[in-house]
Amino acid sequence: MTRWTSDQLPNLAGKTAVITGANSGLGLEAAQALGRAGAHVVLAVRNVAKGEQAVGSVPGSAEVRRLDLGDLASVREFAETWDGEIAMLINNAGVMFPPEGLTRDGFEIQFGTNHLGHFALTNLLIDHVTDRVVTLSSSLHRSVKGIRWEDPNFTGAYDPQKAYAQSKLANLLFTLELQRRLSEAGSAVRATAAHPGYAATNLQSHAGNSLLRRLMAIGNLVIAQPAQAGALPTLFAATQDIPGASYVGPDGPFELRGSPTLVGRTQAASDPEAAQRLWTLSEHLTGITFPMTEKP
């Protein structure tokens, strides 16, 4: 079978893609590929200076806008100042294995940034989206059995690896419930998810544990596929004709590397009741709700 590459992207002229965390790594690779395909690409980034350095490498039409997913006020500001259609909203930004910390709103930093920030952004922008919402998860979602409903912040017993896995499980449950709500509202927008396998990016360098950082640096050299390949599942999930709530990852052994394809997820990540419960919790924590009403 021919390997799917970004050269097979459709013509995206006249379409806008918003990519969170697009100043480096997978987000920047996706931005460059979508720019080559003709899309207008918006790099939604926390550090505008780094975004301005990166945007010059994006072919065609591109711009930088400030967005701090760890600050709900910043998320609201980004959405309130948005005007126009968004063909693809790509929830790419993420924090991985940092030292214990909280977002500006008091949430565990990985759950707050990776899930709640994107939950808020998507709901605030969904009326502008015309085609796809893609949320990045990870195969590490398999390492937890469920959401810590009573204490998603890991209060007093912080484990950065489990907290990261919980946030990636939340990304899949969010996608599942978002697709259900879109379908009930009669929307043609599709919610999909993707994971890059093991891709060499700077994400691994932010781990709080120095030994873990060294091990992942070795893994980047020996095991990982390049970031350009790691971005392919995102691009596939954003542009190909696949069902809503699909999950895309590499087709190689253990989904570490390879060509993008539809992949499986754990039972915990496929639980519609857990997805609805997480949605209710997320609405409570962020104060932001789904704006669409069910179609009569």
From TrEMBL:
SUPFAM superfamilies: NAD(P)-binding Rossmann-fold domains. Keywords: Oxidoreductase. InterPro entries: NAD(P)-bd_dom_sf, SDR_fam. CDD domains: retinol-DH_like_SDR_c_like. It holds the Pfam family adh_short. The keyword Oxidoreductase applies. The keyword Oxidoreductase applies. Signal peptide: none annotated. Gene3D superfamilies: NAD(P)-binding Rossmann-like Domain. Belongs to the short-chain dehydrogenases/reductases (SDR) family. This is SDR family NAD(P)-dependent oxidoreductase. It comes from Saccharopolyspora endophytica.
